[in-house]
User: Fold 3-phosphoshikimate 1-carboxyvinyltransferase from Sphingomonas floccifaciens.
Amino acid sequence: MSHATPSPLTMAARGPLTGHVRVPGDKSISHRSLMLSALAVGESMVEGLLEGEDVLATAAAMRAMGAQIERGSDGVWRIHGVGVGGLLQPATALDMGNSGTSTRLLMGLVTSHAITATFIGDASLSKRPMGRVIDPLSTMGADITASPGGRLPLMLRGIVPAVPITYTLPVASAQVKSAILLAGLNTPGITRVIEPVPTRDHSERMLAGFGAQLTVEESAEGRVISIHGEAELKPQAITVPGDPSSAAFWMVAASIVPGSDIVIENVGLNPTRAGLVTALRLMGADITEQDARTVGGEPVADLRVRHAALSAIEVPAELAPSMIDEYPALFVAAAYAQGTTIARGAEELRVKESDRITAMATALTACGVTCSEYEDGLAVTGTGGDPIPGGGRVETHLDHRIAMSMAVAALNARAPITLDDAGPVATSYPTFFATLDALAPIEQAA
Ligand code: S3P
Assistant:
């Protein structure tokens, strides 16, 4: 699951993006659909699952702990769960590849089972902080031995019964929230998470959908999410909506390449995920929602995006949790906007698959764009819609979103941009380059 051999790729500018695109299934929802199906009693079916490396790492781990997971020739995934409390001792280490979501959520699940699991990952994942989940899960009774700095590889010994806790999130993180709620599934009593700043709520929605007793209340301290433990989950038929984080690249690409006019179908627009749409509209992007509907308990619409003249903004810091994965794409939009866009309050970007503040600042600077870093964000000065110089060689640092963002940046650059490794796109969007070729065929190159 690691990219031993880098695949460099040089991207030149192209003509307008036109036509329809259907983005792959939401990564966050795909992980959760496999995990909860694997804990239900009976057969669940999942349609539209993201078949990227991160989600496949979750599938492999759930199989290693006893679930039966098969992909039918119809593309539907069928999962026979083991029941809450029924996870089995994995025979070998769980290879999480590049996936922080798999790691942190599965650490939660293992915490309240009487099994021991070793978590390993690639060079990027092995640098990421796990202390944020180690702390609360240890309080619930997990015995965790991590590598120095609270990193992978780590070994986690779960416990039955685990101890229910009430935990206020010190960082706005849906992964930490979800790890605790998943640990709470097999913990007697009520486990509570208080989030002062709301983060993506897919776990809450899906746990309730599977029949867990879960309540969400607003309080002076923030949202209080309570889960009753020793739950019984009922199998479900799930349709995974399209991933707004994948749609982000096409929203920005169509906005910056003159003449573009596309429809991105089936985009999940859960308000805890839709911050980029708000930010791009503040910049003047032309994005209209069509056919708003509900898919798998989540709001979804088709988005028509046309090229537009973008203006710099100060990105409202309160949007950060709802667009945390979209900042690299936003910085590319900013590089083509009129004026200097300033994004602050986004320090979490430093602990993603790469340090996304430094990675994007370095990549854009190498392509002739003026950037300046803050500890918690970035300022990017745009061209006012003209091509950026381009011509740089970009280090992607095993980070899929850096690779895709800089591929988009190249689409209206004066000189081609080289990615040192395009391989990481497979973690979340294996068909990214094929889709780009369909929207903006190379023959149309300017
Ligand atoms: C995710 C939560 C976010 C996000 C990640 C997926 C999830 O991470 O960046 O890509 O599925 O819960 P944090 O919880 O670290 O903010």
Summary: Residues 9-25+241-444 form a domain with the UDP-n-acetylglucosamine1-carboxyvinyl-transferase; Chain fold (CATH 3.65.10.10).
